Structure formats: C-alpha cells, structure tokens
Amino acid sequence: MDTKSQEKVYQTAQNSNNGVQVSTAQSVNGTIKSVKGQIAVVQIETEQQPFLFEILSNPEIPEIRLEVFAQAQLSVSCLIITGRSKLHRGMKVVGTSSDLKIPVGEQVLGRAIDVLGTPQDGNGPINTTARLSIYSKPPALTTLKSHRELLETGIKIIDFITPILKGGKVAFIGGAGVGKTILITELIHNITTQSQGLSVFTGVGERIREGQELYQRLQESNVLNKTAIVVGNMSENAAVRFRTALAGITLAEYFRDSMQKDVLFFIDNMYRFVQAGNEVSTLLGTIPSEQAYQATMQTELSTLEDRLVSTDSGSITSIQTVYVPADDLSDAGVSAILSFMDTAIVLSRSIAQLGIYPPIDLSQSTSSTISRSIIGNDHYETLTRFQQLLDKYNKLSHIVAIVGESELSAEDQMLYNRTKKIINYFTQPFFVTEAQTGRKGVYVKREQTIKDIQLIMSGKFDTVSNDSFKYIGSLKEAGLV
Predict the structure, then answer these.
(1) Residue 333 — pLDDT band, cuts 50, 70, 90?
(2) Active-site residue (options: 36, 145, 148, 207)
(3) Dist. CA 188–CA 216, nearest whole Å
(4) Is residue 277 part of a domain?
(5) Number of compact structural domains in the chain
(6) Is residue 478 part of a domain?
(7) Tens of pLDDT along 219-254?
(8) Confidence of residue 451 (pLDDT cuts 50, 70, 90)
(9) Residue 84: pLDDT band by 50, 70, 90 thresholds?
(10) Which of 162, 275, 373, 460 has its CA 20 to 30 A from that of 51?
(11) Residue 135 has pLDDT above 90, yes or no
(12) How far apart are CA 276 and CA 153, in angstroms?
C-alpha cells in the first residue's frame, strides 16, 4: 500500500484525549525494531507521530493490532493486542488514527465479546455500527448523583450484614476456590430478575471454563438477554487482560448515559487487572514500587474506578471480586483496590471448610451503609444487637473448643446457641447452583430476614436444633413458624 492510499484510508480519526473527530495530514509509518513478550518497539519513520493509545497495524495483515503505550523521541512501545505470532523485526506498520473501540447498543445484550468487540459465543456477528472508544474521561463533577437507596439482593447474609447501596462499590474478597464467582452469578440472577436494570459482566484473567459456565447459567435463568459479557481470559496475554476491564466499563457507561438505565457492573477479577498491569510494567522495564507492584498502580485503578459512578442519567453499581494471594488481606495490591470500595465482603476458606455457604466472614466484612438514615431503625437496632451477640459468641467459641459447650454457664449456652442458629440461618440455597446441590434456590426479602433474626434472638426457637436452620429460606417457608 503506497503513502497516498494509506492517507486515504486513515484520513479520519478519533482523538482519544477529547473524543472529537480530527483529520490527519499524514499517516504514521514505522518499522518493528524488537518484540519482547507482549511489547513491540516500533521506530517511527514519519514526522507524524502516533497519539497515545493509537492502534498500529500492518496493511497486509489487518488482524495485527499494536496499541501505542509509551513514547520516546524516535520510537514507541506498543502493547501487542493481537497477532503476536505474525510479528517480526523489520515488519512495516501504519497508524490507523484510531484507538480501541467496541460495539455498543442493545444488540450487545445477551452476547459475549472480547476486547476488540469480536463475538465469542458462536452466535454470529453483532448487528450494530455504533462503536465507542474504551478510553473516556470520568463524568463531570456537576453531573454526579449520590443515592441513599438500598439494592436488595435476596441473599440474607448480604442484605442484613453488608447491605449494598445503589450506585455503590462492593468487593468480594477471598482466595481461590471460596465461591466468589458463584456469588456474583447469583447476584446477577437475583437483581436482574427483580429490577428493570441491565448488567455488564467483565471477566478479567479468569478461567475459560468459568466464563462458559456463567454464560450457560445466565441463559438457563432467563436473564442473559439483560446482560452483556466481555471476556479476557487467563490464557490471553497481559495487554488484553489489562484492557478488558476498560471495555466492560465502556458498555456500562453507554447503558447509563445513552439508554438511561441503572446498571450492575460486575468484574471478575479485579486483582487480575492489577496483575496484568504489573506484567506490562515489568516488560517495559519500569522501576517497581517498594511493594513490588508497578509504581503506576494507584493511577491505573483510579482511572478505572472513577468512571464507575452514578450520574443524572442513571447509576452504576459496581460489584468486584478481589483474589487474595496466599489469603493475605494485607497485600499491597488488595489494599489499593479496597481503598475505593464502600462495602467489603470477605469470604473465608475456614468457613467454607465447615460446609457453610456463602462462606462470608461476619467479623471482617464491613459496609459504609450501616447507618439509621439508610437502613432504618429496625434494621440498625437488630444488626447492632446481633453484632454484640457475635462478639460474645467468638469469645465463647475459644472456650468451647478447649473444654466443650457443657462447661459454659446456662446463660452463655443460651447466647452461644442462639448465635449459632442465626449463623446457620444465613446459609442459603442458590438458584445458580440448583443442579449441583439439589436444593431449590430461594430469594428472601430484607424485611423478612430482619423479622426472622429478631424471632431467633427472642428465644422462640431455643428448643429447636441448630441444624434445622441450615439452607432454608425464611422461617415461614421452612415451616418453623
């Protein structure tokens, strides 16, 4: 392709900094100098320099996508988005005058796409010409809107201990295999079926099997048509995983701003986003921080999290899973993510080993929504009383583990067993695991959960065995009242 042809093809572009259309007098031309991992160094041979995040490609192999990530005087470092196996030193590349864009609109609902917008579900092309850049600025401060409305999940332990605020940010924190993905799949099912909102699920660095299972479960639950899925699997290179999160946010922003919908945004897993950024930073040879993470980690997280906000047009409620390496909650990467969260729900491996699901740690999980003005007096008083019981229960548990429950006083035995009943009551059959557990899923309203816990604390069920409260819905549904 000669220079005039390139100029004709690439004469119109979207400037990634201000989102306006600009014209380029000359297309960018360059030659690949080296390829290292997911990084390609390109020597620019024209006066026209590529803009940050511009996509470079080869005219003869259009599937090659290189994203300009760092610029020097005569060369640029590019993230290899696709086509790594076809790259070689000396290959000619040209600028496309465009950054990464994905398809948007109602046509994306019910579909699974990758960071380039390519369908991954085998259901043919997506019939939309509307595409948006995955890079955008956060909304203006004057357009932001805060909510004081609770988002009911139907999951007893979450609605009671860590209620979720509409438009808030929630983290599910835990190590591998404690049920983070199952929990957010249940949330998609419960909230989507109870509301008129839309959901966006973004898989960052997770297993291909989990993405396939999620798609199938949403399809079986008849909520797939209200959900858009963006995937960047564990098998993808770091550059793809690093950009997948931004692609998902772009869809959520479109549903919020253009369709004026309330959006549930799920990302699994946020820690993998940090890891991908760390891999890219290492390949670029940048100096890490003293915690061994990239020095730009806080900036990368801020760029992402500041877009997940509610405006006058609609809300984005963000629910993010956070993998904890070696179950160490003090890890610098985990701490950086949690600094943006309103609610932190900790999933415990030791609780899961006891057969209690969801295995949420009642003592470590926290929520900023716990106030009378938000959750109401009845909920606040009941929760405060339960927390006092839980504190006493934790102290008594150490004694029971050493000398047995029979050595406790009559009053302590009563408090211990009532708290145990409530902990068992918090277990719940999920809709999305019906085929695996054989238990029919249940949805319990927050008001009903509060009333049931009040009844248990009143002593009405002191003569009922603790195991009778496991994996039930409400007390009435279980035939206990």
Answers:
(1) very high
(2) 207
(3) 13
(4) yes
(5) 3
(6) no
(7) 887 888 999 999 998 888 888 999 999 999 999 999
(8) very high
(9) confident
(10) 275
(11) yes
(12) 31
Distances in Å between the Cα of 443 and the Cα atoms of 123, 139, 186, 320, 430 are 32, 35, 10, 22, 8
Between strands 164-165 and 29-36, the pairing is unpaired
> Whole-prediction pTM value?
0.86
Residues 167 and 262 in one domain: yes
Query: What does 153-194 look like in DSSP terms, one character per residue?
Result: -S-HHHHHHSPEETT-EEEEEE-TTSSHHHHHHHHHHHHHHH
Range of the domain at 44: 3-99
Contacts of 426 (CB under 8 A, 6+ apart): 156, 157, 160, 161, 356, 360, 362
One domain for residues 349 and 412: no
Active site residue 421: no
Percent of the chain with pLDDT over 90: 61
Whether residue 180 lies in the annotated active site: yes
Does 52 reside within a domain?
yes
List 65, 101, 169, 180, catalytic entry? 180
Question: Given 206, 236, 300, 305, which residue is catalytic?
Answer: 206
Q: Is position 228 within any domain? A: yes
Residue 182 tokens read as: 């199952």
Strands (E), 83-180: 92-95, 101-103, 112-113, 131-133, 150-151, 164-165, 169-174
Residue 165's CATH number: 3.40.50.300
| Cis upstream peptide for 429 (omega within 30°) | no
Question: pLDDT averaged over the chain?
Answer: 88
Q: Is 455 exposed, middle or buried (0-12, 13-18, 19+ CB in 10 A)?
A: middle
R_g (Cα) of the chain, nearest Å: 25
Helices (H) and strands (E) in the chain, counts: 14, 20
**Of the candidates 56, 84, 99, which is a domain's last residue?**
99
Q: What CATH number does the domain containing 81 carry?
A: 2.40.10.170
Asked about 207 being catalytic, the answer comes back as: yes
Do 34 and 164 reside in the same domain of the chain?
no
